[in-house]
Design goal:
Layout lengths: L1 E6 L8 E6 L2 E7 L22 E3 L5 H4 L2 H6 L5 E5 H32 L10 H8 L2 E4 L5 E4 L2 E7 L7 E9 L2 E7 L22 E5 L13 H15 L3 E4 L5 H15 L10 E4 L1 H12 L1 H4 L2 H8 L10 E4 L2 H7 L7 E4 L9 H8 L6 E4 L8 H6 L4 E4 L2 E4 L3 E4 L9 H8 L8 E5 L3 H15 L3 E2 L6 E3 L4 E4 L19 H18 L5 H19 L1
Helix pairs in contact: 3-4, 3-7, 5-6
């Protein structure tokens, strides 16, 4: 019975942990890295075909984004998540596949001109569709027996629609252990979603630490703060451009904008248009409405019962096609533009930044976490110029940030959540935080609150029976300025991977019926003869 930490170890994104217990292999999350990679991450140490289950905390791509790759590599187990997470992943994983394919097409156009090798996307739409078919949606609060000795339960943590911490009960013979994965813990007193719930008991806890070294500060009146930014920008004749995560943050901003419009708070511009320029955000908003009764807080449900759609209003424009997106920047009327991605690393937001960063009358408003090394982080921290689509853009727009607008709990929120356990766990594993923040949060938990805490590195492995570490993990730090090492593959690399998968299949074929072995051998023989000619 052991756990191996693979992703989001001393880093914020790319969450992935592996449990081995009761004769099963389980991944808890399998997400993409976003921003630079500061430590060498260990690969999953076994074949995808040997993984039995994935337990998914929520739909954000840094937790779910490599599930189609896992499917492409041969995984055919079950992906357990909440029902709302399942709904969101149906659109988010397809959107991710679209981005992968679009990027590959763009790179290959350049490769043909320069004579470089063909770039193959991490996965395509078929892999995303395949992964989606493996999902099993679960209700909050219900215990589910996954297999002999393994039981799970999802508890709402208020970070995103459908987000959950996962309680896992494990029993091998006479040995029983309970481990809880926090997922991303939500911020309190945010619109739309419920506040995070606590869990009362566990032997081990794996918890995030995104804001483990600081608090968000006093709770702002977001409607008043946003109104002031809109008023000043519109009076200058500029646009308010909001890089916003398509799922979660966009819907929260629509909630505030609806109230501002309803009360006529922006004087002289009461009919200002709002553009949501993200097909994914449009689909996600529909899913929010579908899951309102299980996930919305009491205040938001009260609006619904009065017949008010909390995230819709007159003047809201939904841009789906690329032509609709392009037309936004050729309209001189001051407006709000909500566009993904939230960290400005991809998507339509980069076009809107190109058209507005150089304008002194416009405002770029950040409303979410910006990971180290991302374009959003650079702009938010005062970069003078940035390069977009090969063009150097001078930053003259006003750069603002709404403090406290975060889907993540701050330091006090994290401590409040861990203190919800009635008895201190045997050990708390701290993950999903920047390098120094992980260490500082561990120190805080140990020195100030008496917890046995560790911040494992990628590859770190612990025995859950003896509460001892089996392997320290990889502390090799990469160069600070190294760009995100996205997995790049050529067609030949893909062929090699398929060959490895075939060898694993042959290894497992021992014990098959002779007729099945003969059929496989004949098919492979025919394939070899075809390509040897």
């Amino acid at each position: 019975m052991k756990i191996t930490f693979l992703g989001a170890a001393h880093e914020v994104t790319g969450s992935c942990h592996m449990l081995e217990a009761c004769g099963k292999v389980i991944l808890v999350d399998y997400g993409m890295e976003q921003g630079p990679d500061y430590y060498e991450n260990r690969e999953i140490p076994i074949a995808a075909t040997d993984i039995d289950y994935v337990f998914l905390t929520h739909a954000h791509i840094d937790h779910s984004g490599l599930l189609p790759l896992l499917y492409k590599q041969g995984f055919r187990g079950v992906i357990f998540s909440t029902k709302a997470t399942k709904d969101l992943c149906e659109v988010m994983l397809r959107d991710s596949a679209h981005i992968q394919m679009f990027e590959a097409e763009w790179r290959n156009r350049k490769a043909k001109r320069s004579g470089e090798k063909e770039f193959v996307p991490l996965y395509d739409m078929a892999a995303a569709d395949g992964a989606i078919k493996l999902f099993c949606g679960c209700a909050y609060g219900e215990k589910l027996s996954v297999s002999e000795g393994i039981t799970i339960r999802f508890t709402d943590v208020g970070h995103l629609l459908g987000s959950a911490c996962i309680e896992i009960w494990l029993k091998e013979g006479e040995e029983e252990r309970k481990i809880v994965f926090s997922g991303d813990i939500g911020n309190r007193n945010q619109p739309i979603l419920k506040d995070p719930n606590c869990v009362t008991e566990a032997d081990y806890v794996v918890m995030e630490s995104t804001y483990g070294d600081r608090n968000h500060g006093a709770h702002l009146n977001y409607v008043d703060a946003l109104t002031e930014i809109l008023q000043e920008t519109f009076d200058r004749g500029g646009n308010v451009v909001i890089p916003s995560f398509a799922v979660g943050r966009t819907q929260e901003m629509l909630y505030f904008l609806r109230e501002i419009k309803e009360k006529g708070l922006v004087k002289g511009h009461e009919g200002f248009p709002v553009y949501v320029d993200s097909p994914l955000a449009v689909q996600a908003t529909t899913i929010f409405n579908k899951n309102m009764y299980e996930c919305f807080d009491d205040e938001t449900l009260a609006l619904v019962k009065r017949g008010v759609n909390p995230i819709s209003f007159p003047g809201l424009n939904l841009s789906i096609t690329s032509d609709e997106s392009k037309a936004i920047n050729f309209d001189d009327e001051p407006k709000v533009i909500l566009s993904a991605s939230g960290m400005c690393e991809a998507g339509r937001i980069r076009h809107h930044l190109k058209h507005n960063l150089w304008r002194q009358d416009s405002t770029i408003l950040f409303v979410g976490y910006q990971a180290v090394g991302t374009l959003g982080r650079a702009i938010a921290e005062g970069a003078k110029t940035v390069k977009l689509f090969g063009e150097e853009i001078e930053i003259r727009a006003k750069i603002c940030r709404l403090a406290g607008i975060s889907g993540h709990a701050d330091k006090d929120g994290l401590i409040s959540w861990i203190q919800g356990f009635e008895k201190k766990p045997k050990r708390v594993f701290v993950v999903h935080g920047e390098d120094a923040i992980c260490d500082r949060f561990v120190e805080c938990l140990e020195a100030n609150y008496g917890y046995d805490a560790r911040a494992p590195y990628s590859g770190g492995c612990y025995d859950l029976i003896t509460n001892t570490h089996l392997e320290v993990g990889n502390k090799i730090r990469l160069e600070k300025d190294k760009k995100l090492a996205k997995p790049v593959s050529t067609v030949y690399d893909r062929l090699v991977e398929v060959g490895k998968r075939l060898m694993r299949l042959i290894d497992r074929s021992k014990g098959w019926a002779n007729k099945d072995l003969a059929k496989l051998a004949d098919q492979l023989q025919a394939l070899c003869e075809k390509w040897e000619k």
